[in-house]
Amino acid sequence: MKSLVARASPFFLIALLCGSVHAGELNISGGDSVARVLALQKGKTVTVQLNSGQELTGQVRNVTEDLAQLTALTGREYFDAVVVIDEVAAVIIRTK
């Protein structure tokens, strides 16, 4: 199992980059998790980058502690995806 620091590192990088683009859109705190970041984006379009490098873009429909459901996948509009939270390397969120 990856350490919390290794799993959270991509989020700190994304937060720094997004914070410089438009402050206030994306805020994380020490107790946040991938599941929480995704849950806060419910109904919005996000891109998740998996540990394999594959990216999926879609609207967040449901999030549990272990899984996230994305709908209306870009390029696969008639499909949904269920993503294992532990396989998410980064959550990319448009802030502008």
Largest sheet, spatial ordering of strands: 4-3-2-1-5
Mean pLDDT: 83
Strand content: 25-35%
Q: Quick one: overall form? A: globular
CATH topology, anyone?
SH3 type barrels
| CATH C-level label | Mainly Beta
CATH architecture heading: Roll
State the domain count: 1
State Rg.
13 Å
Helix-strand string:
HHEEEEE
Structural class: alpha+beta
Instruction: List the total number of helices.
Output: 2
Distance between the termini: 34 Å
Helical amount among residues, as a percent range? 25-40%
Low-confidence parts, pLDDT < 50 over ≥5 residues? Answer: 15-24
Question: What would your notes on this structure say?
Answer:
The chain is globular, with a radius of gyration of 13 Å. The protein has helices at 4-21, 34-39, and strands at 45-50, 55-63, 67-71, 81-84, 88-93. It contains 2 helices and 5 strands; from the N terminus they run ααβββββ. It has a single domain (4-93), classed as SH3 type barrels (Roll), CATH 2.30.30. It is of the alpha+beta class. Strands 4-3-2-1-5 form a 5-stranded antiparallel beta sheet. A hairpin with a 4-residue loop joins strand 1 and strand 2 (55-63).
Q: Which secondary structure elements does this structure contain, and how are they paired or packed?
A:
Elements: H1 4-21, H2 34-39, E1 45-50, E2 55-63, E3 67-71, E4 81-84, E5 88-93
